Amino acid sequence: VQLQASGGGLVQAGESLRLRCACSERTSRYMGWFRQAPGKEREFVAVIKWSGGSTYYADSVKGRFTISKDSAENTVYLQMNSLKPDDTAVYYCVASRAGTITSQARNIDSYPYWGQGTQVTVSS
């Protein structure tokens, strides 16, 4: 599975960005985003289930970020609104194993497939 992410950039606090991730084949059950801020561990952001479209968000982004999918294009989007300086990080597109269960959807170990990362910088 190859993942290609795009859409990062530099914005001011309160502004918006949309990330895009295209995958080469849709064999995963979940697809979405993790992020890593300088000096911190990678953390869960949001994922979506290909079948049915169930979504899961980190508490820190709930209400501000929206994940969506285009099944015909094997593409997932992350609309990020009301961005804060704390959202500054490298955002990684991820895809899960085919058999990942819901209780493991937020677990980094469920995601063996990672894209190259895209930088999001939010200035205050």
Question: Secondary structure elements and their pairing?
Answer:
Elements: E1 3-6, E2 9-12, E3 17-23, E4 30-36, E5 43-49, E6 55-57, E7 65-70, E8 75-80, E9 89-95, E10 113-114, E11 118-123
Parallel strand pairs: 2-11
Antiparallel strand pairs: 1-3, 3-8, 4-5, 4-9, 5-6, 7-8, 9-10, 9-11
Helical amount among residues, as a percent range? under 10%
Mean pLDDT: 96
Radius of gyration: 13 Å
Gap from first CA to last CA = 37 Å
> What is the element string, with H for helices and E for strands?
EEEEEEEEEEE
Outline type: globular
User: What count of helical segments does DSSP give?
Assistant: 0
Number of beta-strand segments? 11
Features:
124 residues; mainly beta; 7-stranded mixed β-sheet; 0% helix; globular
Task: Summarize the structure in words.
By secondary structure, this protein is mainly β. Helix content is 0%, strand content 48%. Strands 2, 4, 5, 6, 9, 10 and 11 form a 7-stranded mixed β-sheet that branches. It has a 4-stranded antiparallel β-sheet with strand order 1-3-8-7, with no helix packed on it. It is globular. The model has no long low-confidence stretch (mean pLDDT 96).
